[in-house]
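[job 0412] stage=complex_fold ligand=manganese (II) ion status=START
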Amino acid sequence: MIITIQPTADPKKVKRTLVELGVWADEHVADGRVVLTTNAHSTNIDAKVIEAIEGVASVATKKSPHPLLDAQPRTIEIGAHKIGVDAPRTVIAGPCSVESEDSVRRIAGQLAPLGVSFLRGGAFKPRTSPYAFRGHGDEALRWLARAAHDHGMGLITELMSEYKRDEVAEFADLIQIGSRNMHNYALLEHAAGAKKPIFLKRGMSATVEEWLSSAEYCLMHGAPAVVFCERGIRSFDPSTRNLVDLGAVALVSHVYGQPVIVDPSHGTGRKDLVEPLARAALAAGAHGVMVEAHDRPSDALSDGPQAVSIDTIAAIAAYAKDAP
Ligand code: PEP
Ligand code: MN
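[job 0412] stage=complex_fold status=DONE, emitting structure tokens
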């Protein structure tokens, strides 16, 4: 924001009022007039409130780089389910990867009665090692959809390549774009063309602005809505798999008013930290959590160290239901 001060006003007085509102500004002189430019870490205050301060002549605001996102509803409707500001906290759970039809059906049957509204599971897995289990592909999409829909849950699953867009879109209620692909603009365009809501995971080293811009790509190319998912960013410390950036969650939720989910499973990489981080995420403003769960966590074919039991999902769902 650029705030122009009236020639007769005392800029120090205006600055003091701004600071009381949480707005920090630098003072400059342009064409003999004092102007203030606001610091990026200031509290978001409506320009009209600033215009009303005694001594302020005018306020100029920058055009938003993501107008479609700014206009998207604060609560997203996906079939019978809602995610966002005016919805109950959403619990998404399921295995990292779909291991067999029996296993995903069994897990879905145990999750649905706990209040889990979306089943997650990978049919196509992005694995760091090409030798690791990479999912059962097309047939797993059918297993997932049957397991989710037979139990009244929606389905979230990842789209890894534009070549599989139509297959994934046929079965998924929310199309997941994984962390590694948040910057893959060609994939975002193709995914959006399926005209289904997108579940956009944050790139592991993406800034919040880059994350918001990727969402704008999706909306511009036809996606009806975008739900954000913070899954941890890379940090210098290997003690946890990633660093769950709850500051970014609070910003996206409270300042930008966007629907945001936290994935404490990939965020921490450790089953013992999943529940505490799920609680912290909800306290920070997340509208829900996505958790990797398995009925036999020690046998999970991928991401075993972070797979929690069905009992842990029961505890998280109970907390989410009454979370303030
Ligand atoms: C996943 O959720 O299955 C996944 C691979 O997560 P991420 O893209 O966050 O690594
Ligand atoms: Mn995983």
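The longest helix spans residues 271-284.
[job 0412] exit 0
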